[in-house]
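Regression report. Comparing outputs from two consecutive submissions.

Submission 1:
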Amino acid sequence: MKKLITSAGLAVLGAASLNAQQIYAPAPGLTTTQLSKPWSVSAAIRGFYDDNYALTPKSGIIDPVTGEKIKPRDSFGFEVTPSAGLNWAMEQTYIGLGYVYSLKWFEDRPEHKIDQSHQANIKLNHAFTDRYKLDLADSFVVTREPDLVAPSNAPNATIRTRQDVLRNYGNIMFTAGLTDQMGLSLGYANTLYDYRDNGAGSLSALLDRMEHLGTVNLRWTVAPSTVLLVGYQFGVNDFTGNTDTLIPNPHPTAAHPTLISDERNNFSHYAYVGADHSFNPQLDGSIRVGAQFTEYNNLPGKNEDNVSPYADANLTYKMTTDSSAQLGVRHSRIATDAAALDQENTTVYGSLNYKLLPALTGSLLGQYQYNSFENGQPTAVGSSITFKDKSENFWLVGVNLTYEINRFLAAEAGYNYDRLDSDLGFRSFTRNRVYVGLRASY
């Protein structure tokens, strides 16, 4: 099957240029323009150059029809991105609605020159009292760019594959102050993935799923700047492709030689301890450390299980209201687009937003992922070659400069570099992109 592989470099591009003005508290995600009124509109246009727009492996791939070798192709193009938002900030309640549309045109494509994306977001925060709070959010995306597919709470999600997909992520969190020192958080998150690609071994067969995640955290405030916690999460991956994955069955005596989508179903128990600490008014830190127990409860023949480390930590440094930096790391077991049950993933990510001049802001974003396929099966039926001890290294780097011409208009330019080095065949690639454009906001 022809694999279309990508990076998350556009996440850098999108995050750096979604708004020309700095995002800051007290209403996270809102700019100064958006805070001045309950509605806002924005539109951007940019020209770009992409040296691997088809996301072809650097070794090339063989066309199954003609037998010819297809190599990476480059293209110039342009992108138009209008957006609109509604924001109501009341004494105890905040409600936010947002929609972003993107149209990209590629000059080099002989057919299907246009890619389109839709993003819709809903957010509700309500404080019943000083001790009882409720947070609701939903994010709906239709796109083919993997950086838009990964939910914001999952920096280590699978983001190497470019294909048309519908993704919906919703979550609810209730926080209660039991006493002045003790608190309880109860949460539930649901994520749906539905890829257009179909057929045996397709992305739909491998990645279509519904994820459920329940969370219970018991928090203890040991000092005004320090909170300790103990937590538990229960996660379920329910694969819905209902198609042959072409993954060889780990039990050779089973009736079917390869796995069907739902035979990769699994559930995980996460147990961890952690802390949230404010080192000073500018520097905040958070850490969670524990273990993830995963059981593959629907494999033919017998169940299998795995125990792996779980960690999630980050530091945020607010230099000024216009400049900040973040560094984080996350380790867990997640779904994969490769022919394996899943993958163990370590992601290190960071960002820097800095106001270089009163009108000039620069941003730098980066991410590194290490993925290992310790639960991989033989690469072909009857083969002795397995995914065990196979791994991938994935880097992305993005730089953006934004110059505010006035409070409504800004110019921007940027560069993105993505690279995947994989032990698996026909996956490694590199990609370079540059862009320049204008953004108007009101």
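Submission 2:
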Amino acid sequence: MLHPEALLLCSSANEDNTENDIADMGLKLANEIQTFINETCPSNFIGRMSFIGYSLGGLIIRACLPHLEQYADKMFTFFSLSSPHLGYMYNASKIIEAGIWFLKKWKKSQSLTQLSLADAQNAEESFIFKLSQSKGLNWFKNVAFVSSWQDQYAPFESARVETSKEALADSS
């Protein structure tokens, strides 16, 4: 009610296929956003852009940002809820860890392989590490990473982009 001129896009580009490569899902989201802007915004005028992502959606948004560089000066708020920004290397729940292993094997989930940093021999060659180096988050005026101890899926520290005790103790 405060901003009746605000336009909202509830993305559906990746709804049915979240097992794919996160980079590809980011490109699909960027294309969906660009189409929305072209079809909805008069003269492509945009005051500011904000993003809210939950779980894998937060990573898909981050993968989409480099494709939207022409709007870098319009980025306002990035809000992430329980998104595993640092992946699933140190998951507190053995049940979730077993489920991820099963889904990676059974469904051949490329996104879970990327989230567990198993897509490369060296962590610095993994998708998650490369995503951490990509441009986009620095464009936002506000960035919030939200997590909860009760969330059994996204590791608490990963969602908050903090180094866990397990990571500090890991010599590899």
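Expected: both submissions complete independently.
Actual: both completed, but the second showed a warning that disappeared on reload.
Relevant detail on submission 2: The beta strands are 49-54, 75-81, 142-146.
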